[in-house]
Design brief:
This protein is of the alpha+beta class. The chain is 17% helix and 45% strand. The chain folds into two domains: 113 residues, Proliferating Cell Nuclear Antigen (Box), CATH 3.70.10.10; 104 residues, Proliferating Cell Nuclear Antigen. The strands form three sheets. The protein has a nine-stranded antiparallel β-sheet with strand order 6-2-3-4-18-17-16-10-14. It has a five-stranded antiparallel β-sheet with strand order 5-1-7-8-9, covered by helices on one side. Strands 13-12-11-15 form a four-stranded antiparallel β-sheet. The longest helix has 12 residues. The protein is elongated. The protein starts with a strand and ends in a 7-residue tail after the last strand.
């Protein structure tokens, strides 16, 4: 049996929206402790690592551990119908293999959608040693990435113990965005050694834009020409982390 309830439907909608930017079909691990998801996007350039402890929910019931695979795009269509001060309840009918989504507010509407065959692939956490750890406001990071997106489709991020610099170079224009330690955007930064790596802005922009709704603080960790880890601090006992592979530039 699996049944959960959240008094704040927006919280669930925002989190599923953040996941939807990378994957269309999500296989969730459901256990007595909570819900987990670790999956890569189809091109295997980016990965999402999500976890909600059962304490995040107002009600959480899960009998034996199971996997549940759903079409995230279809689920988002239903969750977009949620409004302010509405609650949402999810329950899985194991006999029919359908997920029931009940949204309660001024009135109650109940949808049901099929679940899909669960993907058994185990996605390991990337084993990377990070030399830079930077803490930013999520909104400040989003603004900086949007600035870089004006001139290019990729950005080089450089960092030392005092600042983080984003360099974007396009066919016509270039941009340099500097975030200094202790500023409103860059709250803190530590670097074992100065590092730099280049990333796709289409991925970075979508990830950060989606995470703004769920998180105020972002922690970036990276090393020279290695994947970047973006961890978005959650208001409750949850985890939302993305990994993005670097774009290797040929000198």
């Amino acid at each position: 049996m699996f049944k959960v309830r959240m008094a704040d439907a927006k919280f669930l909608k925002d989190m599923i929206s953040a996941i939807s930017i990378l994957i269309d079909e999500a296989t969730f691990d459901l256990t007595s402790d909570g819900i987990k998801l670790r999956a890569m996007d189809p091109s295997r350039v980016a990965m999402v690592d999500f976890e909600w402890q059962k304490t995040v929910f107002d009600e959480y019931v899960c009998g034996e551990a199971m996997k549940m695979c759903v079409n995230i795009s279809e689920m988002m269509k239903l969750l977009r119908r949620t409004g302010k001060d509405e609650s949402v309840e999810l329950s899985l009918d194991e006999k029919t293999g359908r997920l029931k989504i009940a949204i309660k507010g001024k009135y109650t509407r109940t949808f049901n959608m099929p679940t899909l065959e669960a993907i058994e692939e185990e996605v390991p956490t990337p084993k990377v040693t990070f030399n830079v750890r930077a803490k930013t406001t999520t909104e400040g990071l989003r603004e900086a990435i949007e600035d870089a997106s004006l001139v290019s489709d990729h950005v080089r991020i450089e960092a030392d113990n005092e600042k983080m610099v984003m360099q974007a170079t396009g066919d016509i224009m270039g941009a340099t965005i500097e975030l200094k330690k202790g500023s409103d955007a860059l709250l803190d930064i530590e670097a074992k050694e100065a590092s730099k790596a280049t990333f796709s802005l289409s991925y970075l922009s979508e990830i950060v834009k989606a995470a703004v709704a769920t998180s105020d603080i972002a922690t970036l960790e990276f090393s020279t020409d290695m994947p970047i880890k973006l961890d978005f601090k959650q208001p409750k006992e949850g985890k939302l982390t993305f990994y993005l592979a670097p774009r290797i530039e040929v000198e």
